[in-house]
Amino acid sequence: MTEGITPAQRAELSLIIPSDGSGIHCSDELSISLGEPAQPLGILRLHNKLGTNCSSFRFDPSWLRHSRRFMVSPDLQAVNATQWCLQLGEGGAQVFAALNDTIPSGFGKQLVEHAWANGLLGELGDCDEHNSASMALCAVSDHARLGALRVRATGQPFADPRTAKFSLPLHVDLDNMGAMVRAFKEDRETLRQLLLMLYGFTALGGPQPKCTFVTEDGALSVAKFFASEQPGCMPRAEVLFTTLALAAGLHTVQLRLLHPVFSPVVIGPRFDRDPTGRRIPYLSARSLLQARPGEQLSWTELLTQMRLCSNNFAADAKEIWCRLVFGRLIGKAPESIDDFEFLYAGNGKWQLAPGCGFRPHFPGTDDKPTDGHPRFLLPPNIEALLASAGQFGLKETDALIEIRRQINVLKTWKWRATEFMFNMNHHQIDAIAPLIDNTQLRQATLLVGS
Fold it and tell me: What residues does the HipA-like C-terminal domain cover (predicted)?
């Protein structure tokens, strides 16, 4: 049962609801398009029949004739016919895989559920209250949506990219957005704040609140907020060890800290946008493998699928192996399937997206979401990773060189931590030291003889 909205609240909300297609408008019939300018992709209809959620999708004929048509989602066939997707169990996808990648999860999912309970989403369109997928799909701002797929209610105008970005927070709003996150977690946010958070925080998943915002030069970036009850060195550690991963030769996003002295916020680019702001099609490894909730998957299955669709399989396979090694050396939480993401590289091929989230696992913190995620089996330790290097395309001698390079970079972490861009004090360094001085790092040091 949703709560009612008062006339005064409705009047306040009307001041910040865009009148063009950049606003949130919920519907059970959605036009799906690709990129900018928008190429029609097809029509999606969401259904709830006898308590079962499903969807039907039909490609637009212009896409089927398009000279640059590619596999938008591995579970869709390039046919001029209706294709159905039935939700299988709790946590299962109700829509095709690539579109399901854009549905809010983690903190964003909490926002959507709260917005429905408060009656806010009911004010922003008309959809079946029993169909959570339609609410979640429509709750994401068009300008911020992950990848190149775009969603709008049928008949709703396209968002004007020149004005759509103004529905998102600006760089000068980040302190206010952090205050809104704290208010939400303490259950004291206003409806106005909740709507602003829907625009900014629903596009990217994960348990930590991630706000898509517009930089001074008009590009999209991400601000990642950490709770006050979490260790104060967590954001600093994430920027530090992601920087060290980059120094060790890994392909990562480049992070920095906003307010490195007090209340640090992790800032990074959106890797699904190119330097001109063009949207890049996106697929998660979960979607690439068409994984179901609770399914047990192996890294060999991911490599097999990558051989079929990767633009440069050798480089991407090596990169995954190097990320796994680095994660073991720094005591990172075990990787989930959602740690591996892909961007469209053209000519029907995909490439591994830049890595992120490199930091030691802090005891007592939840680094991984667990709601309905497939289980991902990986080599459990450095010795197993070295033994399996050949399946990732590395000779043992080359694998040892990579491990030695990472160890040498990690030897610098303590003095790098004191640089202003990380701004760790000796208490924070002492808190992280036992996490880095771990069994896997010692084992790796013995293996390479350094």
Answer: 203-354
| CA count, 13 A, side-chain hemisphere, 211 | 29
pLDDT value at 372 more than 90: no
Q: Domain range for residue 127?
A: 28-66+74-157+165-224
Domain count, the chain: 2
> Residues 199, 203, 205, CA angle at the centre, nearest 5°?
130
Query: What one-character-per-residue DSSP string does 1-60 give?
Result: -PPP--HHHHHHHHTTS-SSTTS--EESEEEEEETTTTEEEEEEEEEEETTEEEEEEEE-
The shares of helix, strand and coil residues in the chain, as percent rounded to the nearest 5, are 40, 20, 45
The answer to whether residues 48 and 183 belong to one domain is yes
| Stated pTM of the model | 0.93
| Both structure tokens of 219 | 């590009």
Q: Per the structure block, which two tokens stand in for 301?
A: 């299955």
DSSP string spanning 170-184?
BGGGHHHHHHHHHHH
Is there a cis peptide before residue 37, judged by omega within 30 degrees of 0?
Answer: yes
Look-up of token digits 């450095």: 382
Note the residue count of the chain. Answer: 450
Dump strand ranges (E) for 193-304: 210-214, 220-224, 256-258, 265-269, 282-284, 296-298
Tell me the pLDDT tens digit for each residue of 131-183. Answer: 577 788 888 988 899 999 999 888 887 776 666 666 789 999 999 999 999 99
Residue type for 371, please? D
Instruction: Please tell me the distance from the alpha carbon of residue 373 to that of residue 336, in angstroms, as a whole number.
Output: 8
User: Cα angle at 327 between 342 and 383, to 5 degrees?
Assistant: 110
Q: 50 with 97, same domain?
A: yes
- Kindly report, residue by residue over 82-114, the tens digit of the pLDDT: 999 987 666 677 899 999 999 999 999 999 999
DSSP secondary structure code for residue 256 in this structure: E
Q: What CATH number does the domain containing 297 carry?
A: 1.10.1070
